[in-house]
Amino acid sequence: LGQEVKMARTTGLHAFTVQEATNYEAFTSWNFQAIDVSGDTIDDPGVTATYITSANPAKKVILYDKGGELEATDSISITLNGETDANKVIIVDGSNLPFTLSGLTITSFKITIPDGDTTASEELGLISFH
What we know:
Blueprint (H helix, E strand, L loop, with lengths): L1 H9 L7 H6 L6 E7 L5 E7 L9 E8 L9 E6 L8 E5 L5 E8 L2 E5 L9 E7 L1
Antiparallel strand pairs: 1-8, 2-7, 3-6, 3-8, 4-5, 4-7
């Protein structure tokens, strides 16, 4: 059994033993972060999730409209795990929240909002499960 676990951990990020795959849905902690998006664009460098790091990766992330005033025209760009290629950015309309990501190890989470048509009291909530 010791060899099987060692092999699974050295063959890639998504190569799990049966027990590791079962435990992946078990969370040991969670964190919350409020992100103020009122009245302006959030452009480079964007807002990075404070609690999601390579030392403390998230297994599940929920992004939701905390203020209840985001519109479909409010485009939210999400960059995962430090990817810089434009094709690896997830774009979510404000009307498609809450948005949940799960099933992968998330080592960084950055949000940008390129349009400036946000209203004065818009706020996003970000819950990360570790």
